[in-house]
Amino acid sequence: MDRLILKKEQAEELIRKYGSPLYVYEEEVLRERCREVRTLLALKTYHPQYSAKANSNIELLKIIREEGLDVDAMSPGEVVQERAAGFEADQIMYCSGNMSEAEMRYAHDHAGILILDSLSQADRYGTLFLGSEMGIRVNPGIGAGHDAKVITGGKTKFGVLSEDLKEISEILQKHSLKLIALHEHVGSLFLDDTVFLEAAEILLKLAQQFPDVRILDFGGGLGVPYNGEERLDLNRLGRRLTDLIASSEQKSGRTYEIRIEPGRYIVAESSMLLGTVTDIKESAGVKYLGTDIGFNVLLRPVLYHAHHRIHGYSDSEEQETYTVCGNLCESGDILAEGEQLPCMRIGDLIGIENAGAYGFSMSSDYNGRLRPAEVLLSDGTDRLIRKRESMEDLVNQI
Ligand SMILES: Cc1ncc(COP(=O)(O)O)c(C=O)c1O
Ligand SMILES: N[C@@H](CCCC[NH3+])C(=O)O
């Protein structure tokens, strides 16, 4: 199964049972994506990890762990979720930015290797943990991604540019730190691997300047098609990356533990988000399909103008063009404009494809709208993997 597509009867049954809106995940798709990433490189030293920022539901994390992937973490909160899913500290690579001293201490005590995002962080880390091993996030100067907001290489707040990395030697010496890992991440969602591979080459070259480096992490960003684009060619990516690594290792006589950290690729396609049509109206020539999916439930369309395919679960044979919107107090609360759907009635359901990555994980209770529930489908059975937020949750402030 390429991605989860629910049939009308299935969607209606799930909404009857669990309420609306609802994130629904399919275990088979999730496991399949994990296996693809697990076998991307045929190197003994290959060590893929899942980037839990895409979705940190603990039941999904357990499946990902069973499939043999490690994880990265971006905050103490993610470490707690990952530990709850059974990951050991040394299976968690901690990679964040703008860390406070307290956060560094937390990561040092509860996670595996820590990737520092600036020279100043490396200096403070050295003061706290003299003689430790650590990694640095390199900004390769080039980036890729589906929107400027998620391109992280180049002129962005992330990492240390190669030319500035020279200064690290003094910091390493001052605190007897051992730089064992170089990390990079060009950005999120590429379907063409050119920039990712160019950046990998940059990191492989850079590593030669640092004799203690034994881990190279090329980051995530592996994309999935949202609107019928051609799939990322994983076999080609695997082959080309393997060639780059082999040629660098041959030249330098050094071997590295190789890591990547995809998030979206693993979870996006395993999920559909279901919602309900709550109103329909025409205003100034526009037909608005009002739903209970505000941007507190799915933020990506509003934040990045991202388009997710929408299914209208209707019995009508007729088509209509809608602006599909949510129930929040902002004019920008729009899921899609000019969307061709079968004629919908109030109470009909809609289903949004590829909702598994950066869907629930970016949700909120803005306007007092509750975060949705999450359900997992496994071998034809369904089970709740996160209960819907409640009114009690909204008022329990202290
Ligand atoms: C440092 C880092 N690693 C990994 C990821 C995962 O990216 P993606 O979900 O596109 O694979 C991100 C998010 O863009 C990130 O910031
Ligand atoms: N949240 C982004 C991608 C990840 C950004 C994290 N570096 C999206 O939905 O596309």
From TrEMBL:
Instruction: Name the protein family.
Output: Belongs to the Orn/Lys/Arg decarboxylase class-II family. LysA subfamily.
Task: List the InterPro entries hit by this protein, alphabetically.
Answer: Ala_racemase/Decarboxylase_C (IPR009006), DAP_deCOOHase_LysA (IPR002986), De-COase2_N (IPR022644), Orn/DAP/Arg_de-COase (IPR000183), PLP-binding_barrel (IPR029066)
Q: What is its EC number?
A: 4.1.1.20
Recorded coiled-coil stretches: none
Q: What is this protein called?
A: Diaminopimelate decarboxylase
**One GO BP annotation here?**
lysine biosynthetic process via diaminopimelate
Instruction: Name the Pfam families for this protein.
Output: Orn_Arg_deC_N
List GO molecular-function terms, semicolon-separated: diaminopimelate decarboxylase activity; pyridoxal phosphate binding
Q: Which UniProt keywords apply?
A: Amino-acid biosynthesis, Decarboxylase, Lyase, Lysine biosynthesis, Pyridoxal phosphate
The enzyme's first-digit EC class, named in words, is: lyase
